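Action item from last week, closing it out:
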Amino acid sequence: QVQLVESGGGLVQPGGSLRLSCTASGSIFSFYVMGWYRQAPGKQRELVARITSGDTTTYADSVKGRFTITRDNAKMTVSLQMNNLKPEDTAVYYCNLVSLGRDYYWGQGTQVTVSS
């Protein structure tokens, strides 16, 4: 079994910053891709950012230049630094891990609310 535990969500004013972290534990020691998705009310879940074990990153156009994804392979952790947050960034953010065997795992989600 693989567990993903997320932390760092909360309420922030527009223009503020938050840092999300996700740590994988259980029967996994390496990964193919780790990343973050988000789902706003009434919308489909969408990719925010992802990073491969080789450090290749992908970002949604809406967050480029504002969000940065990093990883620590040894700690099986991925972090998302979110700067200059906007109300449209409000969503539940989910951590995702794709194993070397291409199995998908998801965290429980953490709420990010951007509001004045």
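Closing note: The chain has a mean pLDDT of 94.
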